[in-house]
């Protein structure tokens, strides 16, 4: 039936287009700034924490204590239980550091950030995660750039990658910074902040209403809102925040699923950007990229399930699949991947499908901190959700084989590929 064929083709174009756009955005041309002039604006660094190891917070305090900047404060907002907070309270910290606990932790991370903002005295607000580490001149660079911009998206870099997964994650992060942040910024496209490395003028944040509480992807939401309010976020290459990569495949799966959930949750809101023309349409695609990546495979899955009712051409399947694979190959070549592991894309596809659909349906979401220390990794681990997705593709393939043999074989191959995840 023409409708099913058209749906398959359109979904293949959408998924492939976003993959190709990332390859097109990628640039090695750094955005350089010869000299940072130290500003005199007061700065408040705000960090929201929950279930973090005391050693992580101790290292954070030590790192932020050595900043080469006079007028700054650090506010750490804890949503921990009383026992953990009492343990954290014993950590030594300078007078300009505040460690406070919310008795009623409402509004998820955004609620904690808003609480920190209510305590902040700085003209500049900097938001970091607990594992963030910066160099001594970090605030000099932030204040320099914020003298001319209302908000900054700072460069993320993975520090000390140990195992293969962390090296792969580090490479993905570098490509993302060079493509989705630097590349898009140089082409005049809207830049969305990363909650792990974000700075904004206090007045600007308060003018747009602060953080949206209860949202899983609070950084994506505020990025959309800043764009809709006409506030341009500048991306800077020369102010770097070092972070950690997940230690295990399980931790990576949970993190990817959280990103996708937050994107799906914001779909109706993010589509409003399309009102602002081509830049807005591209921004809407960016905001929903976790749903865009797997949409082609999801449509194939649906086509297989509906094969008893609706016919789809084998040529449509082969042509669309060829387009998707070619775009993936171009992306791989452009990203200059030095290490590769088939488990990365299959893990992403499964996490994105599950997370994005869950976000669309607004199912319950339990936030879990990504571990900041090495753990024993179970190489045989397979997430239950991936098993479920794989079996759905298997069922779709078995149904399709009775009516459209080749299409069914394609779905069975996808089902088997999904099971290569550890």
Automatic annotation (TrEMBL):
The chain crosses the membrane at residues 6-26, 285-308, 314-332, 344-361, 405-421. Its main location: membrane. GO terms for molecular function: glycosyltransferase activity. Keywords: Glycosyltransferase, Membrane, Transferase, Transmembrane, Transmembrane helix. It is a multi-pass membrane protein. Residues 125-321 form the Glycosyltransferase 2-like domain. The keyword Magnesium does not apply. InterPro entries: Glyco_trans_2-like, Glycosyltr_2/OpgH_subfam, Nucleotide-diphossugar_trans. GO terms for cellular component: membrane. This is Glycosyl transferase.
